[in-house]
Amino acid sequence: MLDARKILANLQHEAELAIEDIKSSGAIDKAKKAASDVRERLKNDPKARTIAAGAGGLLVLGMLGSKGGRRLIGDIAQTGAVAALGALAYKTWMERHGRKAGDNPVKEAAAAGFPIDPAADPEFALAVVRAMLASAYADGVLDAHEQKIVDGALSKADLTPAERAMLTNEVPEAETLRLIADAAKTPHHAAELYAAAIVSAGDLNDRESAFLTKLADRLGLSADESRAIRDSALG
User: Which of residues 67 and 182 earns the better pLDDT score?
Assistant: First the structure.
């Protein structure tokens, strides 16, 4: 059974490793070296070739491909992906209401109803993973390194066809959008799921932009709301 919490835990571990490389480089914009290191580790380390490790590595690779994702890596290393995304969505929500988040945005986000704990809502945790993977590979292209990571992650995993399809982005787009949107029980859930997709998208091309537009629509986000999240995540 695919356990999103394990994937998110591995994402946090990969973020911890990546942020050390980012710090040693002296500049976050040089973080693509960290992405290369993640690729090599997942390709060469047999212990990393599990479904949790492989998927977590894929998620951090997607995040390292965008400025907003690289900026969020440090927060994920400290608090975990769901908490970091909840804090990001909360800060955006506060700014849209002319207010400013305090010194503990994760705690404040939880109090305001933004999900921060994947164990508390496994369905939402899975939707976060699904949104990140779908966004990272919305262009339909995996390069050779990424394909090896996917193959390694799947090779020893006891997966159902549906689980394999999710991680290889073989589920039809309309079904992916439905499954993500079904986990958005409140507008705060919707904002957090959209933030997850934004920070994983990398440099946006036409197909990725189109996917994000469709996702915002399915999540019930207005153009102003989705733009605010995008600006907060990527600006």
Answer: 182
